[in-house]
Amino acid sequence: MNEAMLALKGIVRSFPVAGKEELEVLKGIDLEIARGKFVSITGISGSGKSTLLHIAGGLDSPTRGDVSFNGKLLRELSDAEQSELRNTNFGFIFQFHYLIKELTAFENILLPSMIKNPKEDRERAGLLLEEVGLYARKDHYPNQLSGGELQRVAIARALVNSPRIIFADEPTGELDNENAEKVFRMLLDITGKYEHSLLLVTHNREFASEADESYRLHFGLLEKI
Amino acid sequence: MRYQNFLAGRFYKSKKGGFLSFISFISVIGIAVGVFSLIVVLSVMNGFTEDLTEKVIGTKAHIYISSMYGGIKDPFGTAERIKKLPGILGASPVSSSEIMIRDGDSVGGGILFGIDPESIDTVTDFGKYLIIGEPRDIKDGGAVIGSELALELSAGINDKITLISPNVKVTPSGAMVPKTVELTIKGVIKTGMYEYDKSFIYADLEDFNDLFDTGKGTATSLYVKIKDIYATRRYMDMISPLLSPGHYMRDWIDMNHNLFTALKTEKFVMGLILFMIIFVAGINIINTIVMLVQEKRKEIGILRALGSRSSGIKRIFLLQGAYIGAIGTAIGAFAGIITVVLIDVLNIRIPGGGVVYYLDVLPVRLKVLPDILVIIAGAMAISLVFSLLPASWASRIDPIKAIRHE
Ligand SMILES: Nc1ncnc2c1ncn2[C@@H]1O[C@H](COP(=O)(O)OP(=O)(O)OP(=O)(O)O)[C@@H](O)[C@H]1O
Ligand SMILES: [Mg+2]
Question: Which pTM value belongs to this model?
Fold first, then answer.
């Protein structure tokens, strides 16, 4: 149980900058996230939090270093295998909800399940919709929902395939305090209940302090707080 | 449902970038116009070809038998023997040659057919094309002339017509004068082929023999009518042993080779030109999908994050092209088929028809195989091939770049 499910080793990420030498955003990050754990990362804007989260979730590749999930190196997986990993084991929530505006709340939640299997799990999608308190809004389209509601739908979407780990990049960043609190609690409740791991990037010190492990990203390195 | 199909459908129906956008509408219309014109134009060309074929073989034979040494000596006997073969519908002696027609002080050209009125209808549609008179009326110095020729000569029934043979005869005084024959017009034929109606004259075989000195009871050729007009080879092989040496055969395809090759080439070139419309519409499809991909960059990023493979993304956008192609093709095919059917039932007259052109109504013939099938498959293939480019571009979009920066 205690073994690291997701492990980042010596992650370096640099971006080419026109005319100048490379900009090294991450300078050697080591991080392990065990099953069911809640890990938070804070840091000033531009410190590389999103970059780190994208690398951890396999959306971006590090310049150097390795990411492994359950002992398997991500870089050794094919596009199909990486896609499957993201689909079934990872869940993403971003600062902006990124719901698909042509789909209803229910259909948005169902989408990862459809990607997994053409026989989508409608029951679970309905259950999750209920859990985020939006069952009555089932057939509403994103433009009919408020910012907080949209983010709650995005949470349900991230959870529909019962992933092992949720990557959340400032999920409450766009919300007012009251809604931010509500969304954060919901995220914490659900991930706790189903033993999902949670990697949360946030500006909110209060939220960050509730994590099992809290880190600050500073000058390209992680500092434990 | 597969999520790619599901999303492709929803994207397609969305107002911006999707089906309802102006540019997508233009793509659909482009395909539809291309398919429509191909169906209509090719059907008209089929109609012409078929009509022409029918008239060509309706006035002439399926198989011609001629002799290398002047004429066929025993045409009636040979005809009887050929008629006993299976699949032979008829055989009749026919002589033909160019002649001159005297019209007052001037002369014009024509083609004289010497026919056997009893059996001519077993090999051609002669009787069917007669608008005045009957085949047997040509007996005893009668003649049937083409309707256009009748107009030109202002000749009517029972008027006399003088034909001048290229052969000459020597008068008792030693002068050489061309042989002539005077016939009485007893009938008028109208095939609808201007060229034929303008020059054909039919007379009794014996009057022909008389005029050309070809000898009583002979004919320049034997016309044979067969059951399956596309299997002429087989029948010719059957007939061959019945003929004495020096006879040879040709079929209707061979006799009209140039005409049918020209028609085929024309149809091919026309089809190619019209396919260009679909080609241009295909370029519109690229445009439409590029716009949609731009619009959906964020969605593409999130779909990748949610676990769609790059091939899945490709399929979503490929399907957009398929929808445009399918809807355009369906509209075009529907409108095209309706138009062809309307042209057929309304018997649309060609302006100047019958005089300027050989036909007076527009003939059409819808061919499902291969025409319609090739058009539909071609339009769909072009739509898909042109979608491939923007679709594979969409599938290569870096999810991070798509998600970053609001
Ligand atoms: N593709 C890229 N090319 C060049 N520079 C990049 C690229 N992506 C990120 N960066 C740079 O890397 C740095 C870290 O970016 P990142 O988005 O990870 O920061 P962040 O900590 O998430 O900031 P914020 O709190 O504002 O979201 C920034 O300076 C950014 O400009
Ligand atoms: Mg960020």
Answer: 0.76
